[in-house]
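Re: duplicated header lines in exported C-alpha cells

Our pipeline writes sequence and C-alpha cells for each protein into one text file. With two proteins the header for the second block appears twice in some exports. Here is an export where it did not happen, for reference. First protein block:
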Amino acid sequence: MENAVFGADSARSPNVVVILADDLGYGELGCQGNRQIPTPHIDSIAAAGVRFTAGYVTGPNCSPSRAGLLTGRYGTRFGHEFNPIGARNEEPEYGLPLGETTLADVLRDAGYVTGAIGKWHLGGAAKYHPQRRGFDSFFGFMHEGHFYAPAPWSGLATMLRRRTLPGGGLGRRTFGDVTYSTQMGGNEPEYDANNPLVRDGQPEAEAAYLTDAFTREAVDFIDRQRDKPFFLYVAYNAVHSPLQGADAYFKKFASIDDVHRRIFAAMLANLDDGVGAILAKLESAGLENDTLVFFLSDNGGPTRELTSSNKPLRGEKGSVYEGGVRVPFMVRWPGRLPAAAVYDEPVSSTDIFATAAAVAGAKPRQGRTLDGVNLMPYLTGKASGRPHEMLYWRQGRNTALRSGDWKLLRHGRGKTDGDWELYDLAHDVGETRNLADAEPERRQKLLGVWQKLGAEMVAPAFR
C-alpha cells in the first residue's frame, strides 16, 4: 500500500504537525517552570525533542502572529500588521493578502494532504477561507474567538467580563456556574456573533467542549490520512477567553482558591490532554518517527485577563517587551533531532515554514522574501552560529528590533511615539534596566538598523 502511494523507489515524506496554543504565557508549562498546573503531554514534546528558550513570534497578538507563521514572513512585509476583531473580521480588506503563499500551498504542491483545525483569524470573508489558502479541509471558526460550548454552558465553570455586574455594582459575583467580573472594565466580546463553527464551508452544530472537539478532529484527520504525507495545523483557541473550564478539569484544581486561576488551570490541563491524544494517535498509527511536530503559542499571555504568567519576562500580549513576543516553543522528530535538548539562540515562528518546506523537499514559490530559516542544520549540529542575527517587530507605534543579544524597542501611546529603550537580553532577560542613555552609540547604531529594516516593510493594509 505504501509503495503504491509513494512509489517503490521513494521514501515517505515526513508528516508535519503544527500545534498552536492561543494566549499561552511563557511561564505556564511544566517544562518552562510552572509547578501549579501539570502539562505532561506538552512537556513530552520538549523531552523528546528541542525546547527553544528564545522562541519568538512575529506579532504580539493573534492575527499578525498567525500570518507570520503560515507565510514564513513578517506580516509587515505585506501589510498584515494589526489584529482584526469582532465584525471587522468580515470586512473585505481584513485578511491575509491573496498574493501571499501559505505553508499549506507549498506543501500541497509537494504532494501533501493539508488540514486546518481550530481558529483561523486570517480573514472572515469568503476569499480568505482556509480552503482557498492551501488547506484541503477545515473544521473550526473564522474570527478571533469562540465560546467553548453552546449556552447555557452546562457542565462548565464560566467567568465572563462585564462592565456592570448583573443586578448592578462592580467587583465579582457568581450565579450558579457563571461568575461575572468587572476587573477588565468592559463586557465579554460577542465572540459567536456571525462566527459559527464550520466544517469546510458549512456551519455545523457542535455539542462537545471545543478543545475536545478540535482534538477529536485532529485525531480523525491523522487516522484518515495516515497512508499519505500530511500537513496538519491544529490551532486551538485554548487558553484564549472566554474563560470556560469543563467541570471534570475544574474539579481537579480544587486546591486553587481563586476561581479565575482555577478555570484557567482547567483550560490548560484540557489543552494538554488534547495534545497528548494527538501524540498518542501518531504513535499508535506508527507515524511517531515519521512526523515533525511543532508546538508554540501565538503570543504572550494576557495576564490580567487570564492570570497568565510570562515569567521571567516583562510584558504581556499586545506588548513588544519579551512577554508579548517570546513564547513557549518546541519541536520534536524522533531519530532526526536530539532529545531533551535546550536551544538558547533566537528562533522565530517564521522558521516553521522554512524548516517544514526543507524536510518535505518542497520549493517555496518564487518572488517572496522568506524571513524564516531552516532550523534542521542548527539543531543537528551541522551549522554553527545563530539562525537569526536580527528580528523585527512593528505594530503601529509599538516596535522592536533584536540584534544579537541587544534589543531596541519603543512603545507609543495614541499618536505619540514613546522613548526608545535598550536592553541587554544576555544579562537582563526581564528587561529591567533600560540602557538607552548609558549606551547612546549602541542605541543609534541599532536605530539605523531598525530604520533600514523598516524601509523594507509596507504600510498596513488595515488597522
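Second protein block, exported in the same file:
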Amino acid sequence: MSIKHALLALMEQGAMYGYQLRSEFEERTGSTWPLNVGQVYSTLNRLERDGLVVTAGADDEGHVMYELTDTGRGEVAEWFTTPAARTQPPRDELAIKLALAVTVPGVDVGTVIQQQRSATITALQDFTRLKRNENRGSAVPAELAWSLVLDSLVFAAEAEIRWLDHCEARVRRVSVEVRHVTSAGATTSAESEVLR
C-alpha cells in the first residue's frame, strides 16, 4: 500500500495537518490499516522534499498545514489511473509458511492448514457480521469507502479458505501417491514428512 499516494489523495480536498490526514485515512478504510502519526509526518517531509506538497502555514491551533502542489496533483491523478502492479507478488506469510511446512521435517501440515482455516473462517464471520451492520446504500463517501474495504476483506478471506482447501487436497493427493510408491519401494525422508 502506498502511504504516499493515500496522503496525497486526501489532500485533494484541501490543506491538512498530519494527525488530520491520519484520522481521515483511518476513517475511510475502517481502521483496517492503522497509521502511526510519526509515519505520516515522515512521509509528509519526504513529499515536501520531493516537491509534491508545501507547507501552507498553521491553523488556529498551531498545526502545520500541508497542501498539494501542481506536481502533487499530477502524481495523484497518475496514481488513480495506473493499475496496481502485480509484477512482484507481495510476501504472503501463509504461503511461505505452507511452502516451508511441507519441506521441514516434523511439521504436521494438516494441522497448520486446519488452524489457519479456523482462524480465517472466524475472520470471515466477523467481516460478514460487520457487513450486515453497515448502512446499506449510504450516500456518505466515507461509509462507501469502508464498505468497499470490507468487501475486499470478505473476498480475500473467502479466497484464502478456497486456497487452503486446495492445499489440503494437494497434500492428501501427494500422500496417497507417496504411499503407493512406498508399497513398491522405500520413500525419501522428505516424502515421509509430507505423509504426516
